[in-house]
Design a protein that fits this description.
The chain is an all-alpha fold. It contains 28 helices and no strands. Helix 23 (399-419) packs antiparallel against helix 24 and helix 23 packs parallel to helix 25.
């Protein structure tokens, strides 16, 4: 009897209790009761039916609440349940109604993102297009207004939007680039005259900054819009007062200014067409020390017409120096006015190169790259473009791309070294020696770039080894041919300068040290004039070191 009772107890605990627990859950018929049942009997025969009933109850609760959160919770909890499709439809309806009631493009885009294939997709797309047009018709964003005008050419709000676009575009046109764009985009704009006045003001700012006061005064007097530059007389007076200080004959005042150490712009411009290419590239190098809008055209012309690559490279370097040292607004104007003029001219490699350089030196490297590509002729590669590509890619840490450009530059130097003829007949072989000088210098630069690329552990090391062999051959041959040419040159003209002549560079470096010493002395020796001299150096000196020194001295407390 005792054994029988124990067996019954075991049977009640394991089997008999399950039907009773299930009946209790069914009688209560709540999610909580069913979950309690599953907690006690997770593997029971009724577990699957209980889970189905839980899903039914939770779906009914979601419908009762009828909210986005309720339907999302149900779908996440029962992704395989038969009621999910209905829940998704109800959820889509809620979201569509909310997006439609809000009526914004953002809300409708969100709905379409959540339900890209929903039953309300076509209606939502129709509402979205209408909302976008409505928002575009009232926006202050010029890009959106332009999109609206393209998409809704017959919309009755078009004239209002065109007027607002005119207002907003001019209001945002702070620099020369935007002002020229405004004049192009709005041939009947309300602010065309104001835009031209602003451009004239930027032109005068450049002339006054460059010390060309008489030229600025004459330009304003002759221009039909000159009278509208209401602040010009005051600006001219300030420039005259500053010039009066800078032109004083005091030796210390002279020594603090870069012009004291340079040939005049006129002399250097004449040297740019001297018979000896070395005179021309040294003139281009020195011209870049004059921070003046007056040097831009001579340098651009040297870049265009110079036959020796060193002339053109020095012109490019000097253009970069001057444009960086000019006030940002002035530099932007000088670039923009030239780019605008190039729009009216037919395309050619020379014009593409000029455009590329202007874009490049104004920081628009992405646009410049396309123009450099248009200017580049594979059958006659331009070594100046190759060297610029090489420098830009190396600056971006694109070692292998820089190496590819360096290889092409080496091939150019190798070709020059092989093809340049040397002869004592017919006069001094000066042109050949100068061309071989360019080949040797460019070959050395290319070889150094390839060395850095190999050290960077870039991809395709075998290719880099091959590039290095080409560069070494180009450097060796160009230097050997240069030595032959210069020996012949010195035999016929004992005083002839050679490729290693760095007199201009040495003079310019010495001038930096002398200007620094002069600026450090003006505070004690010329305390009344020191602020003017230091401010002039900070604003106009081509040397970054001198500008930094002047700024430091200006910030120093006055005794």
């Amino acid at each position: 009897m005792r054994a029988f009772r124990a067996l019954c107890l075991l049977w009640l605990l394991t089997g008999c209790g399950l039907p009773r627990a299930y009946e209790r859950a069914r009688t209560t018929d709540t999610v909580e009761a069913y979950r309690e049942f599953l907690r006690q009997y997770p593997e029971g025969d009724e577990a699957e039916a209980v889970e189905v009933r839980i899903a039914e109850l939770e779906f009914e609760e979601a419908k009762r609440l009828h909210s986005v959160v309720a339907y999302k919770r149900f779908i996440e909890a029962h992704p395989e349940d038969s009621h999910v499709r209905a829940a998704r439809a109800l959820l889509e309806g809620l979201r569509f109604n909310a997006a439609r009631d809000e009526g914004t493009a953002a809300a409708l885009r969100q709905f379409l993102g959540d339900h890209p294939d929903g039953a309300q997709r076509e209606e939502a797309q129709r509402l979205l297009k209408a909302a976008e047009l409505q928002e575009a018709s009232s926006t202050r964003d010029p890009a959106r207004m332009r999109e609206y005008l393209l998409e809704a050419p017959d919309d009755p709000r078009r004239l209002e939007v065109e007027s607002r676009l005119d207002d907003e575009s001019f209001a945002r046109a702070e620099g020369a680039r935007e002002l020229f764009a405004y004049l192009r985009d709005f041939p009947a704009g309300r602010y065309r005259e104001q835009a031209r006045v602003k451009l004239l003001g930027l032109e005068m700012e450049g002339l006054l900054f460059s010390g060309l006061l008489e030229e600025a005064q004459a330009r304003v007097a002759a221009h039909p819009l000159g009278a509208k530059l209401e602040d010009f007389p005051a600006r001219l007076a300030r420039a005259r007062a500053e010039r009066a200080v800078l032109l004083q004959p005091d030796a210390l005042i002279r020594s603090a200014q870069v012009e004291h150490y340079l040939r005049s712009i006129e002399d250097l411009s004449r040297a740019l067409v001297a018979p000896d290419p070395m005179d021309r590239w040294q003139a281009a190098q020195e011209l870049g020390q004059h921070v003046s809008v007056k040097v831009l055209e001579p340098l651009l012309e040297a870049l265009r017409s110079g036959r020796n690559p060193l002339i053109r490279w020095r012109a490019l370097e000097s253009l970069e120096t001057v444009l960086r040292a000019l006030p940002r607004r002035v530099a932007e104007y000088e670039v923009a006015v030239r780019l605008e003029a190039l729009r009216e001219k037919a395309g050619s490699p020379e014009l593409y190169l000029r455009t590329a350089v202007l874009l490049d030196l104004s920081g628009r490297v992405g646009e410049a790259a396309a123009e450099y590509q248009r200017a580049f002729l594979p059958e006659d590669p331009d070594p100046v473009v190759l060297r610029r590509w090489m420098d830009l890619r190396e600056a971006r840490h694109q070692a292998f791309s820089a190496a590819v450009a360096a290889r092409q530059l080496s091939l150019w130097a190798l070709r020059v070294a092989r093809e340049e003829s040397l002869s004592a007949e017919g006069g001094v072989p000066q042109a050949a020696a100068r061309q071989l000088c360019a080949a040797a210098r460019f070959a050395r630069i290319a070889s150094e770039t390839l060395g850095r690329a190999r050290a960077a552990n870039t991809e395709f090391p075998e290719d880099l080894e091959g590039f290095g062999v080409t560069a070494a051959e180009a450097l060796k041959l160009s230097e050997a041919r240069l030595a032959d040419a210069e020996l012949l040159l010195r035999q016929q003209s004992p005083g002839a300068r050679t490729c290693g002549d760095d007199a201009v560079r040495e003079r310019l470096e010495s001038a930096v040290a002398e200007r620094r010493a002069a600026l450090r002395s003006v505070g004690t020796r010329l305390p009344r004039l020191a602020p003017v001299l230091l401010e002039a150096a900070r604003a106009r000196d081509p040397s970054g070191d001198i500008r930094a020194e002047a700024e430091r001295l200006l910030a120093r407390p006055t005794p």
